[in-house]
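QA checklist item 7 of 12: single-chain prediction sanity check.
[x] sequence parsed
[x] length recorded as 128
[x] structure emitted
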Amino acid sequence: MSRLPLVTALRAQHPDADARREAVLAELMATGESQEPWTEHARDALARWHAQVESNVLPVKAEPARCFAAGCVARVTFPDAESFQESFRRTADLQLGEASAHMQLPPERRASGEVVATWLVLRPAAAP
């Protein structure tokens, strides 16, 4: 399983950040759901990311992680743009492990002021 389609979608030209996020998520979901052994580590990494944000910034609403053949994703809702930015500053250097890359996709900004961050842990390059 290659991560190339996700990288291609991320780097492609899109009309806006929302379209970029949705293109990456569509490519991810197209790889099919997965419960392979590596996904346990990815779920743990997303849980550590969430815990780091809650301990350093403030409580947030996190959806359970969903795993696909190319990576695992979790959506986290911040009450406002300021808390989202603070979280981004405090976790920019967060290390989730050496086995895989992780990223935050462009956020969704709701009319209510909430900001929904989409966190992604990619399938390790060495995974079968």
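[x] summary fact logged: Residues 37-56 form the longest helix (20 residues).
[ ] second reviewer sign-off
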